[in-house]
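Need S-ribosylhomocysteine lyase's 3D structure for a figure. Predict it.
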Amino acid sequence: MEKIASFTIDHIKLQPGVYVSRKDQVAGGVVTTFDLRMTSPNEEPVMNTAEVHTIEHLGATFLRNHPEFGSKTVYFGPMGCRTGFYLLLAGDYESRDIVPLMTEMFEFIRDYRGEVPGASPKDCGNYLDMNLGMANYLAKKYLDQVLYDIKEDRLVYPE
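Structure prediction for S-ribosylhomocysteine lyase:
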């Protein structure tokens, strides 16, 4: 069986960044999948499920309500390895194209206070598994260490 594209990336060299994971032709258009890598795989601890879950709720809420990208957002959710998130957007994009959007989204997550959207038993299958404080912290870390001064090597997968 052939390896899927995400398993061909050298995770030993991979650092936090914003990467185009793949582009697919769907119904006559392009869907771009982004790898929003927040932690260094196999080098630093993965994110716990509570903060991943909180970032997922806040990020999805932000994206679906965004005036420009709301209608282009196909999916936002966590990687199984808990080192980042996938974002699927309708359209043909490069990594640099979404840095302003990701900066805006992670500032929203960093600054968010109050009840997490959808964190109720009626709205979510695991509503108690949330950690807003850690989600705020991780969003700030990603902004400070990656997004605010993103370098070219954090926009293109390592060779």
